[in-house]
Design brief:
mainly alpha, 17 helices, globular
Length: 409
């Protein structure tokens, strides 16, 4: 069984590769403040205890006693994500106790990785620990993309769910405020570093831009935005937990598309099995449990497809005004043209029927209304993708040149 000492020793061997502030004592102390974070850490540990009691002692049976050590966590978000993983692992163990050996030794670590070149969570093994690494930038991507979609569909009035329920799938033509920030982040990504002193280059671009300027309104989370980003992050955790299981089954699996597809399917079983832990968060969603379960993979896959599309469009826009620039090269993806990305999204939509069958096995069949609203949602998502090109083409030349001239960090 692992403990804090073995976890910290394992993490020390890879942290410098994954976390840009790990070796910067000043930045690390600023961003990781256990004293300030302690209330959130304690709340996450209390929730782990609730999971253990509800799941018949699963946390103890699986050897996760170490997770109750507050000194193991430096941020509340990290401890909370560990608790969310334990919800899934415990829910699976309660139904399948024979799988205990497949479910052990998982530890979440959040990194302050802000580069959109490395935006996805990862499963990394430093024996005996199975780390699930969740970078800051991935949570930022989920939040900004879900926020932008909600703003475009609900016209900035937190009415997106109502629009879908009433067959209104139209996307507002104006660029959503959250999309302005996402554009600005991507354009300044090469100059953005959490440990670098001075003005934030993203804010500097937005302050001077006529198009990418902030709307000035205080941030209040919208309902659909919260539902999409929360469930997609949980599904991302499910996917990484599935990699842990697959490694236990066969450590020599080749890392390829087939392995990722297997992780998607196994991960969805984790996700569906543990749904009861997140259902109350989805108050206001006009869907049954089955429909709500499908939101996780739906936004997980769509946000990835949208991100690749957005990167490609921005690369083309930058190449118009700053050809050969480092910014254009960083944004461009090699291979995968937009057509292939569009085809991938259509394949994912086809998988939803298979996921719905799995959800039904776990007692959450789709209702007729679920099918209607999810159809409206996919139509609206297609419209949102179509709107991206026009929004990208609205970014002024001056903004592109400003971003291209920022020094690379």
């Amino acid at each position: 069984m692992i403990d804090r000492a073995s976890i910290e020793a394992a993490w020390a061997t890879i942290a410098h590769l994954l976390d840009p502030v790990h070796q910067d004592a000043e930045a690390d102390a600023l961003l990781r403040n256990p004293e300030a974070e302690s209330p959130g850490i304690e709340a996450a540990i209390v929730h782990m205890g609730l999971v253990d009691r509800t799941m018949g002692g699963a946390i103890q049976a699986l050897g996760y006693d170490f997770a109750a050590d507050p000194l193991l966590w430096t941020r509340a978000n990290e401890a909370t994500l560990q608790a969310r993983c334990l919800q899934q692992l415990s829910s699976w163990w309660k139904v399948n106790p024979q799988d205990a050996a497949l479910l052990q030794d998982v530890v979440v670590r959040t990194s302050f990785g802000t580069s959109y070149g490395f935006a996805t969570p990862q499963h990394i093994i430093v024996a005996p620990v199975h780390f699930v690494i969740v970078p800051y930038v991935y949570q930022e991507l989920l939040m900004l993309s879900a926020r932008a979609f909600d703003e475009a569909l609900g016209r900035g009035e937190d009415k997106a769910w109502s629009a879908l329920a009433n067959s209104d799938t139209g996307i507002a033509p104006s660029m959503p405020p959250a999309m302005r920030r996402l554009f600005a982040r991507l354009l300044t990504d090469h100059a953005f570093h959490p440990a670098e002193p001075g003005d934030n280059p993203t804010d500097a671009l937005m302050a001077r831009s006529e198009i990418l300027c902030p709307d000035g309104n205080p941030y209040e989370p919208y309902t659909l935005e919260s539902h999409l980003s929360y469930s997609a992050l949980d599904y991302a955790l499910s996917h990484e937990l599935a990699h842990r299981v697959l490694h236990a089954i066969n450590p020599d699996f080749a890392i390829d598309q087939a392995l990722e597809q297997a992780a998607d399917l196994i991960g969805f079983r984790f996700f569906a099995c543990s749904w009861g832990w997140r259902d109350d968060i989805f108050e206001g969603a006009p869907l049954s449990e089955g429909g709500r379960i499908l939101l996780g993979p739906l936004w997980f896959f769509y946000s990835a497809s949208m991100f690749f599309t957005l990167r490609s469009l921005l690369a083309a826009r930058v190449a118009e005004f700053a050809p050969g620039s480092a910014l254009a090269r960083r944004l461009a993806f090699k291979g995968e043209p937009l057509l292939a990305l569009t085809e991938r999204w259509h394949r994912v939509k086809g998988l939803l029927a298979q996921y719905a069958e799995v959800a039904a096995v776990f007692g959450a069949p789709l209702s007729k209304l679920d099918g209607v609203i999810l159809d409206h949602l996919t139509i609206a998502l297609s419209g949102f993708t179509d709107a991206l090109q026009g929004w990208v083409e609205a970014i002024p030349e001056a903004d592109i040149l400003f971003a291209a001239e920022l020094p690379e960090i």
